[in-house]
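Q: Two folds, back to back.
A: First:
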Amino acid sequence: MTIVHDGVDKWACFHCPGGCGETIKLSLSKNQRPRWTAMSDWLRRPTISPSVRQTNECRCHFWIRQGRIDWCKDSPRR
């Protein structure tokens, strides 16, 4: 995961864990909607909140918690 910043965190970018190959770009800007928060623990494992839902053909829905993908029950990629 890459965090893009220009003085403040702007984007969290990573490859979709569902295997579709898409790069997911989540806004971290407090002035944008929707927006996410990104944190890292002392081992630099990322946590993203809220969950991420792909609206493309992949249709996966997941949380990123301490660097681990936790699939939601409605995701076809569990």
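A: Second:
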Amino acid sequence: MMTEPPPPPAASSHQTLLVLKILRVSLHVMFAFLLCFGAVLALIGSVYQVRHAALGVLSLVLGGIYLAGTVYENRRGLPATFPDLFPRPGASARYRQAARFTPAYLWLLIITLLWLGLMALDSSFTWVVFPIMFLYLHLLAPVAGVAATLVLCALAIALPLVGPAGFGLDYLLAEGLAPGYLIGPTLGALLAIVISFTYRALRADAAHQYQLAQQLRAVQAELVQQQYSAGKLEERERLAREIHDTLAQGLSSIVLVSRAAASSLQEGKADAAAAQVRVIQDSAAANLAEARRFIRDLSSPALDDSLVSALRALAASTETAQRAAGKPLTCAFILEGDEETAKALPEEVSATLVRIAQGALANVAAHAEASRAALTLSIWPNDITLDVFDNGRGFTPHSLGSATLKTSPLSDTGTGYGLTSLTERVTRIGGSLDIESTPGEGTVLTARIPLNQTSQQPPHQPLPTQEAQ
């Protein structure tokens, strides 16, 4: 059964494409040379006859049809159906289905008939059969191509001997058969078969390499998309932490103090209301500066001076805001260690400690109902710890795995992200977070960060939590 050869790959290695191109060009050059060589041999050395004109016309027609077919294939590929020779927009696909007899087969048949016509006039065109063998081997299925090549080989042997322009049977019976008439076409056919199968193997290898390259590009594109999606998710989580620990906490404080100011005005306490309004103004100004810093370069909050100064200012601002909200809270900062060592900490460690302190004090202010709180920064030789203590109502801790922490939903009011945010922050730099609490006796949150392994990511430790956070 005749089948179309597989289409050449759109891209492959440069070396393979170069070899395939050289083989195609060599085939065309060989056809043109052998056709011209046969025409010259047939037309010279004898007196002009009518058959000379026929030879010239057939040679030109054969060369023109061969050239037209090769140019069309090079530009548009092999047409599957005859309507594909002149495609029309909107043509029905039913008429473009692959047919058993294609325009390529018709082209090959015409070339063969023209060659047979030339052979009937003069045996000088015997050698033109070799490039025609390559055409059959290229366009037909392997078995059909080999069979057609053997038939052409037999014709190339028989026609110069007993054909219209051959020596004739009487001459063969009298003089015998010269070995060259058998050896030449036979070797040419064998060579054509070997080269054709080599060409097919190169095409198959090129197509295989192209498929592998396409698969590799698809995998690379998928990996890029996965990395992009993971980056988007990580950036989204980071932005959520930043907003929660900065603007959301500040706005929450403003809401509480504004309610207290409204109550003071209703009770006629103008001085208290004025102090509360100043606290609101200070908090709003601080949050506005934080927002601008956040938009500008996402730098760490309140670290324009040092970690110690930032924690001390955070304790003071929390105490002022709680007093203005009508919930007095004494908040102290304690440093255990060398302040110069604290100043030399990596910026990522300092920023994380400030964020943890912000989140922990925000939880104390919102849920603990405490009268005293303390931030304790302890600097040890191998690690640094931050303890946040309050004497509030406490709670009964229960352990939750990291998966539960990361997937626990927020409350209807948008709270519930604080402990998850603190956990993610400290684990990102290789630290750990622990909470100890007893109902009625207060809570201690401890963040521990190793100073020599801040870039590592140890396994997440199960942490206690409370429903209010």
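Q: And?
A: Residues 32 and 63 are 7 Å apart (CA to CA).
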